[in-house]
Amino acid sequence: KIEDLISSHPGVRTVTTKKGEHGLGIMILEGKHIELGRGIFISDIQKESPAEKSGLSVGDMILAVNKTKLIGADYELVRILLCFMFAIQ
């Protein structure tokens, strides 16, 4: 359950944002977290993008999108998911 994951890791936060004219303004890559394992990380953020304005940072691990858990997800799955979401939490 994503709520359990959030409560068990200090520093985890919920960010809500909506895509702008050019998307969220992030680049992602597949990587590995020492405790959580394989996942998706933010590798770049465009200036003044919805992602930057919502407080996301390079290096942040995306744990879930709209309650869909992404731990263990691969790059292609997350790329498709992000393309079809308008509002992201």
TrEMBL record:
Keywords linked to the UniProt accession: Cell projection, Repeat
Tell me which residues make up the PDZ domain.
14-82
What Gene Ontology terms describe where this protein resides (cellular component)? Answer: cell projection; plasma membrane
Q: Spell out the InterPro entries in the cross-references.
A: PDZ, PDZ_sf, USH2_Complex_Protein
- This protein's source sits in the domain of life called Eukaryota
- What is the first-listed, main subcellular location in coarse terms? other
Where does the UniProt annotation locate this protein?
Cell projection
- Write down a Pfam family by its short name: PDZ
Q: Which PROSITE patterns match?
A: PDZ
Q: What is this protein called?
A: PDZ domain-containing protein
